[in-house]
Every structure is written in structure tokens, then in C-alpha cells.
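Title: Comparing notes on inverse folding

I've been comparing how different people in this forum approach sequence design from structure. To keep things fair, I'm posting one structure and asking everyone to reply with a full sequence. Here's the target:
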């Protein structure tokens, strides 16, 4: 299940956050990505329904599709998913699993509101459906906010909430260390699956991760101080060079979720790639190919790169707008 000392450190990390956890509730994984894949392998068979927030992290879409699951989208609002929509979806699709990111959602940066957290947990309990909360970005606060896992809103006997964590965003994705926190019997079953997959995660990496996780609180502040000015810079550059683009300022995470005033981000991404800027259009992060008007811009890069990127995007936008006109005229002619 992982190097015992590291599992203890992860358990202590949750205990300090106010979520009572024993080391037996922890399975160390090769990043959050493996955690999602293991959960998919344990719970899902071809044709099973999964309720998933939309847009969402594309790696989760891939992992669920790889086992043949059917994905039922749940719209993410600035306050997260709507509990009434979740209930309606459950009643309509009888899902085997719910996957959401309550904390600093990728790509929108949304945070599930306090009231909605309680309701969402209550609904998962009422229908007894495993609820996977992916908190990979949950520590990346931009305003110093501390968000607790959904599991801390559940009763102590809960077996329906599965929490995923990762070292990737606060420390280093190259470590390939993440984990699952769940009820002991679930951790045991996931552990068996993991052994079949890879015989276990590198102990060397776990030893490094163990040391790093102890510095969590300090690094969280350092990360905030590093990211805040970058977000500030990116939004200032966009306001100046692409004033028609709009967004809601994220409270955490690494991305700006931008709405284009016109056109579709997929085609625009192709134009941007001619200027050597890679952007991810919203439809790739949607399970139903919606969100074509959105794109995701990360603000992790240094000031020079961010400035250059926005300058190039502005040039690409100038090229794209007339193309859009031509496309419209052609469509009209063809119709
Ligand atoms: C929401 C979310 N989940 C999981 C992952 C995968 O993380 P890891 O590097 O820990 O596998 C990412 C990475 O971007 C992510 O944003």
C-alpha cells in the first residue's frame, strides 16, 4: 500500500486538516492519474454510468473512457456543481460512480460552496454511490484560503467518499506521487489492483515525497506568493491586448478559464499553434464536446514567457477574426 512512514505522514496531514485518518486508509499511487485509473478499474465495467463535472480534467475523461464508462456531465458553476442537478442525474442514470473536483477545479478554478458541499455529501450517502473527490489542485490557493476535503463533511463510518491527493502541483509532477484516502476495505481492494499494475510505487520517490510533504504549509505560502503576481500579470496583459476576452478570477489552481467573445476555441487553437503557442480548447475538457467558446490558459510560466505568449495570442486573434467572417460567409453560401 506504500512505504509505511509516508502513509503515516499523509494520514497526519489529513489529521492536521481536521479529517481523522489512519495510515490504513491511505494507498500511495503513481500520481493522481493512477489513483483515478485504479478507482475506475475497481468500480466500473463497460457501459456503466459515471457522473462527472463538466468541464473537467481531461485525464479523468480518458481514464473513465478507457474502461468503457458512459460519462454523464454535470455543469460546473462558479459555486461548483448544483446538488439538485446531481440528484436529477442520479435518478436518471443510476451511476456507479461520481467524480468531481470540489477544490480549485481544473480548468475553471471553481470552489464548491459550503452549502453545496454538505448537500452533495448527503446525496452520495443517501444513494450510497461512491463519490470521488479529486483534490489534486486543492492546495494551490491564490488568496490563502484553506479548503477541506469533502470527506470531512461525511460521518465517521463513511465508505462512499474517496479522496485523491497528489504531490504534483505543490511540489513536482516528476515525482509521480499521489494517493487515495478511503475506507480501509476499499484501500485494501485498490491496493490489490495496484500490485497487479506495477508491484508498488518507487520507495526512493516516497522517501523524497515524505520529506517534502512535511514542508507542506511553508510551500503552500511560497507557491501562493509565486503564483499571485503571475495571475495578475496574465490578466493585465489580456485586459490590455485582448480586451474582449472574459474570465472569472480563480481563487486557486493554475489556470485562467477564458471565454471568447466569438468563434470557437478549437479552431483558434490551430491558428495559435501557427504562432507556436499551445492552448487547450474547452471542448477537450468537456465530456459532451461543449465549451467550444472557452480555452484554458495556465499562468505558471515566467513573466517573459507570459508576455510573449499573450502578444502572440493577440496576433493570432487578429488573424483568426477575419477567418471567422470568411467561414460564416461560406457557410451562408453553402446553406
Ligand atoms: C484535477 C487533476 N487530477 C489529476 C491530475 C494528475 O495529476 P498527477 O500528476 O498527480 O498524476 C491532474 C494533473 O494536471 C489534475 O489537474
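Reply #1:
Here's my take.
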Amino acid at each position: 500500500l506504500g512505504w509505511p512512514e509516508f502513509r503515516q505522514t499523509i494520514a497526519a496531514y489529513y489529521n492536521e486538516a481536521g479529517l481523522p485518518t489512519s495510515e490504513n486508509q491511505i494507498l500511495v499511487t503513481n500520481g493522481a492519474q493512477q489513483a483515478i485509473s485504479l478507482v475506475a478499474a475497481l468500480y466500473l465495467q463497460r457501459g456503466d454510468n459515471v457522473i462527472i463535472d463538466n468541464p473537467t480534467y481531461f485525464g479523468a475523461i480518458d481514464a473513465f473512457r478507457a474502461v468503457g464508462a458512459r460519462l454523464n456531465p454535470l455543469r460546473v458553476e462558479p459555486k461548483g456543481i448544483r446538488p439538485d442537478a446531481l440528484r436529477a442525474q442520479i435518478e436518471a442514470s443510476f451511476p456507479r460512480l461520481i467524480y468531481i473536483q470540489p477544490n480549485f477545479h481544473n480548468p475553471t478554478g471553481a470552489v464548491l460552496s459550503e452549502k453545496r458541499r454538505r448537500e452533495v455529501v448527503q446525496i452520495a450517502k443517501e444513494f450510497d454511490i461512491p463519490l470521488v473527490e479529486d483534490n489534486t489542485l486543492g492546495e494551490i490557493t491564490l488568496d490563502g484560503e484553506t479548503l477541506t476535503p469533502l470527506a470531512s463533511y461525511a460521518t465517521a463510518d463513511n465508505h462512499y467518499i474517496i479522496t485523491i491527493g497528489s504531490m504534483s502541483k505543490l511540489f513536482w509532477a516528476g515525482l509521480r506521487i499521489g494517493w487515495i484516502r478511503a475506507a480501509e476495505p476499499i484501500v485494501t481492494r485498490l491496493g490489490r489492483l495496484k500490485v497487479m499494475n506495477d508491484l508498488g510505487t518507487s520507495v526512493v520517490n516516497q522517501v523524497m515525497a515524505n520529506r517534502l510533504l512535511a514542508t507542506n504549509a511553508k510551500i503552500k505560502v511560497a507557491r501562493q506568493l509565486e503564483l499571485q503576481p503571475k495571475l495578475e500579470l496574465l490578466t493585465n496583459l489580456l485586459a490590455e491586448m485582448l480586451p474582449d476576452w472574459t474570465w472569472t478570477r480563480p481563487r486557486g489552481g493554475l489556470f485562467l478559464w477564458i471565454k471568447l467573445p466569438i468563434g470557437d476555441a478549437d479552431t483558434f487553437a490551430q491558428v495559435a499553434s501557427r504562432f507556436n503557442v499551445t492552448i487547450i480548447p474547452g471542448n477537450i475538457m468537456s465530456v459532451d464536446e461543449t465549451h467550444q467558446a472557452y480555452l484554458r490558459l495556465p499562468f505558471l510560466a515566467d513573466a517573459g514567457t507570459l508576455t510573449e505568449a499573450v502578444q502572440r495570442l493577440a496576433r493570432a486573434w487578429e488573424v483568426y477574426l477575419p477567418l471567422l467572417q470568411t467561414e460564416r460567409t461560406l457557410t451562408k453560401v453553402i446553406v
